[in-house]
UniProtKB/TrEMBL annotation:
Keywords: Amino-acid biosynthesis, Aromatic amino acid biosynthesis, Transferase
GO molecular function, one term: 3-deoxy-7-phosphoheptulonate synthase activity
Annotated transmembrane regions: none
Pathway entry: Metabolic intermediate biosynthesis; chorismate biosynthesis; chorismate from D-erythrose 4-phosphate and phosphoenolpyruvate: step 1/7
PANTHER family linked: PHOSPHO-2-DEHYDRO-3-DEOXYHEPTONATE ALDOLASE, PHOSPHO-2-DEHYDRO-3-DEOXYHEPTONATE ALDOLASE 1, 2
EC annotation from Swiss-Prot or TrEMBL: 2.5.1.54
Annotated stretches, region: Disordered: 117-150
Gene3D superfamilies: Aldolase class I
Name of the featured protein: Phospho-2-dehydro-3-deoxyheptonate aldolase
InterPro entries attached to this UniProt entry: Aldolase_TIM, DAHP_synth_2
C-alpha cells in the first residue's frame, strides 16, 4: 500500500462537489495538518481483506449467505475498553450462531465498529432551555457535553478516532482468531448472560444442540479448523470525507484505491446525493460499499446509484441497506427490488429496521419499539419472498450491554424503564437480550 499522495488516480475529485453534513472547522490549517498526519499513518485494514469481504457479499447477493451487520449507533472515545468490545463481539457471535444453526445459512459478520464515530444529524443546532449550540456530530467531530467549548469541531479528534479504531480492531482481530470466537466456546459466550432471561435460556438450548453437532463431527474425525476462528469485518459510515480520503491508499497489487479505514463503508441516507461528494468519493474506491435507502428513494435513484458505484457490475461491490420504516416497507420496497432486479444488476439487499422507526418518548428519550423493528424485518422478508429475491441480511444498532434504550422484547423494557440505562451517544440500540430475540425471529423467517 502506498500513500494516496503517490497515486496517479486521484481520490480528491469529491472536493469540487457539495458535501453534506461536514463540520465547519474554525481553523482549516489545523485540519490540513491533521489530515497530512493521517495520510502518513499505516492502513487499518488491507486491500486483500476488503476484496475477501466483497467475495463474501457476492455470496449474499447470490442467495448463498446472510449478512449480519451490527454495532453501536455511535462509538464513543470513552467506551472502547476490552469489556465493551468483547460484549459487542459476543452478542454478534451469539446472533451469528443462532442464524447459522437455526437458519442453516453461512453468516457474513460485519461490525459497525472500529470507525463508527461520526453522525449525520437532522438539525445543525440543538436548543436547550433557550440556549442554541451546534449539534453533537459524533466523537470524531465534537463533544456531547452541552457547552459552547465542547461543541466546536476539533480536527485533533480525527487522530483520536484513528487510534481508537486501531486499538479496537487489534482486539477484535485477537478475539476473532485467537480462540475466543472458537465455535466450541458457544456456551461460554452465554455464561454471564442472565440465566433467567428468556433469550439466554433459548440460546443455551441451541448451544447444547451445536455442542452435540460438534461432538458428533469430532467423533467422525471431522473437526474443521474453520470452527476455531471467525472472519469478522469492520464497517462504518463514510461521512467525514477529510478523514476517509486521508486514509485512502493505492493498492500495490492492482494500482487501485482502497479506503483503508475499514473493510466496508456505507453512504448514509442524508449524504447519498448522486451529484454529491460522498457518492463521488465512494465511486473512486474499491471497497464493498453500502448505501442506505430511505422511503423516498425512487427506482431511478437506485438504478443511477448502481451505475455510479458499480458500473462494472462487480458481484459483492454494492449493498443496498433499506430503512423504510415498518409502516412503509411493504409499500415502497417492492418496486425498488423489482426494477433493480429487472435491470440485471445484482446487489445485496439488507434491511436496517432501526432508522425508519425512531420516535421520541414522553420522557424525551429517543427510542424504538422492538415490535416495529421486527415488523420491518418481517415486511422485508415478505417482499423478497413475494418477488423471489433474496433477503440478504440485517443491519442493526446494538450493544452487548444491558441498556434500556429500545422498548419491548422478550425481557420487556417499558417506556418508564428508559431512564435506567440510557447510554447511547446518539440513537437507541437493541440490548443483548433484544438482539438475541431478533436473531431467533430472523432465523425462523429465513427458514420459512
Ligand atoms: O443515526 C442516525 C442519525 O445520526 C440520527 O438518526 C440523527 O438523528 P437526529 O434526528 O437526532 O439528528
Ligand atoms: C445515520 C445512519 O443511518 P441513515 O443514514 O440510514 O439515517 C446510521 O446508520 O448511523
Amino acid at each position: 500500500m502506498t500513500a494516496n499522495a503517490d497515486s496517479s488516480i486521484s481520490i480528491d475529485t469529491w472536493r469540487d462537489l457539495p458535501a453534506a453534513q461536514q463540520p465547519e472547522y474554525p481553523d482549516p490549517a489545523a485540519l490540513r495538518a491533521v489530515t497530512e498526519e493521517l495520510a502518513s499513518y499505516p492502513p487499518l485494514v488491507f486491500a486483500g481483506e476488503c476484496d475477501q469481504l466483497t467475495d463474501r457479499i457476492a455470496e449474499v447477493a447470490d442467495g448463498r449467505a446472510f449478512l449480519l451487520q451490527g454495532g453501536d449507533c455511535a462509538e464513543a472515545f470513552d467506551q472502547v475498553g476490552a469489556d465493551q468490545i468483547r460484549a459487542k463481539l459476543k452478542t454478534l457471535l451469539q446472533m451469528s450462531a443462532v442464524l447459522t444453526y437455526a437458519a442453516a445459512v453461512p453468516v457474513v459478520k460485519v461490525g459497525r465498529i472500529a470507525g463508527q464515530y461520526s453522525k449525520p444529524r437532522s438539525k445543525p443546532t440543538e436548543t436547550r432551555d433557550g440556549v442554541t449550540l451546534p449539534s453533537y456530530r459524533g466523537d470524531s467531530v465534537n463533544g456531547p457535553e452541552f457547552t459552547e467549548e465542547a461543541r466546536v469541531p476539533d480536527p485533533e479528534r480525527l487522530l483520536r478516532m484513528y487510534h481508537r479504531s486501531a486499538a479496537t480492531l487489534n482486539l477484535v482481530r485477537g478475539f476473532a482468531t485467537g480462540g475466543y470466537a472458537d465455535l466450541h466456546q458457544v456456551h461460554s459466550w452465554n455464561q454471564d448472560f442472565v440465566r433467567n432471561s428468556a433469550a439466554g435460556q433459548r440460546y443455551e438450548a441451541l448451544a447444547r444442540e451445536i455442542d452435540n453437532a460438534l461432538n458428533f463431527m469430532k467423533a467422525c474425525r471431522a473437526d474443521p479448523a474453520e470452527f476455531q476462528s471467525v472472519e469478522f469485518y469492520a464497517s462504518h459510515e463514510a461521512l467525514l470525507l477529510a478523514y476517509e480520503s486521508a486514509l485512502t491508499r493505492t493498492d500495490s497489487r492492482s494500482g487501485k484505491l482502497y479506503d483503508v479505514s475499514g473493510h466496508m463503508v456505507w453512504i448514509g441516507e442524508r449524504t447519498r446525493q448522486l451529484d454529491g461528494a460522498h457518492i463521488e468519493f465512494a465511486s473512486r474506491v474499491e471497497n464493498p460499499i453500502g448505501v442506505k435507502l430511505g422511503p423516498t428513494t425512487t427506482p431511478e435513484d437506485a438504478l443511477a446509484l448502481i451505475d455510479r458505484l458499480d458500473p462494472d457490475r462487480r458481484p459483492g461491490r454494492l449493498t443496498f441497506i433499506t430503512r423504510m420504516g415498518a409502516d412503509k416497507i411493504r409499500d415502497r420496497l417492492p418496486t425498488l427490488v423489482e426494477k433493480v432486479t429487472a435491470s440485471g444488476a445484482r446487489v445485496a439487499w439488507v434491511c436496517d429496521p432501526m432508522h425508519g422507526n425512531t420516535f421520541e418518548a414522553a420522557s424525551g428519550h429517543k427510542t424504538r419499539r422492538f415490535d416495529d423493528v421486527l415488523d420491518e424485518v418481517k415486511g422485508f422478508f415478505e417482499v423478497h419472498k413475494g418477488l423471489g429475491t433474496h433477503p440478504g441480511g440485517i443491519h442493526v444498532e446494538l450493544t452487548g450491554d444491558d441498556v434500556t434504550e429500545c422498548v419491548g422484547g422478550g425481557d420487556e423494557i417499558f417506556v418508564d424503564d428508559l431512564h435506567q440505562r440510557y447510554e447511547t451517544a446518539c440513537d437507541p440500540r437493541l440490548n443483548r437480550s433484544q438482539s438475541l430475540d431478533l436473531a431467533f425471529l430472523v432465523a425462523e423467517m429465513y427458514r420459512s
